[in-house]
Amino acid sequence: MDTCTTPQEIEFSSILPTTFRDRDRDIPIPPSHEISLAGLPGLYSQCTYALKILFVNRGPLWNKTKTCTIPFKYYPRSRPSVPLLTNDGIRPGLSHILCHDQKRTGGVVRDAFYFAK
Q1: CA–CA dist 43, 35 (Å, integer)
Q2: What value does the CA radius of gyration of the chain take, rounded to a whole number of Å?
Q3: pLDDT tens figures, 85-114
């Protein structure tokens, strides 16, 4: 008889599409929101997202299915997750700015950023 243990955690990754198709055009998916206007009764808007996971336990005579739904909030980024710095010595992926300094040389103001990993 085969036995199998279910792990406590299962890592995965998925990319949420940035658009949906309506007729002949692509439209950005909206952020999570819930809006009701006090001055206009009955006017209400809500957008929610959830990840639905199906667990299927296959048995010799029947399969047992369990569903788990995990709601999440979606707020699209308005800027890149990693700074797009191209100066020598500054690599994308550094996590903290320790100090920001401005130096004036010859009438030109230059910004200097000091980073920590």
Answers
A1: 8
A2: 25
A3: 555 555 555 444 455 555 666 666 565 555
Q: Reply yes or no on whether the pLDDT at 16 is more than 70.
A: yes
Q: Identify residue 38 by its one-letter amino acid code.
A: A
Task: Please give the single-letter amino acid code of residue 52.
Answer: K
Mean pLDDT of the chain: 75
DSSP assignment of 80-92 equals: -SS----STT--T
Nearest to 93 by CA among 103, 74, 80: 80
Q: What is the pLDDT of residues 21-62, one digit of tens each?
A: 999 999 999 999 998 888 888 888 899 999 898 888 888 888
Which residues are paired to 115 by β-bridges?
A: 97
CA distance 51 to 55: 13
